[in-house]
Amino acid sequence: MARIIDASFVTSASKIDEAPPEGIGEVVFLGRSNVGKSSLLNALTHRKNLAKSSATPGKTRLINYFDVTYKDDESGEKFRLHFVDLPGFGYAKVSKSMKKEWQRSLVEFIEKRRTIRLFIHLRDARHPDEPIDDEVKAYIESFIGPDQCYIEVFTKGDKLNQKEMGALLRDHPGAIVTSKMKRKGVERLEGLIFDIAVKGAPCPSK
Asked: CA 13 to CA 106: how far, in whole Å?
């Protein structure tokens, strides 16, 4: 079993030229504004305030880098990754301008950054089939490389009742559903990130 034992903020970048030098494998987190990226990052890294939520959804425009250390309990080896928190997109009140800003500042980054090993697309479990999420999924899959993976993770699973959860799992078989309140799905995701981004495990079947 591998687990995260340390995490720290590295830097913020507004464009690819300001990002850290390529080298360490990168895990990118993206999703609509207010989907719970900061909460999930904090849960994964066992840190309460590593990633800070903005008081105004959709306000953050920067690419935030975090240095994350995994430890393999069996071998005792340690491995470093960069977790990359991308600006949220598609917030209702600023949908058009937010989407335009997100595309302009991030298209070059996510298409050309070859150290990205894994794209984690967060989707709100309460609204699992938003068209904008489908568009982002199709966009990433249009350019993703053979050495990169894309997975979907549903946040705010604690907001669903049993019937709604059943429908989500029926429509999205094998979905990873997380909850910051109960840490549901967090350990599973923590291990999956390690397997894919560090060990080079194949992408889960879609």
From this structure: 10
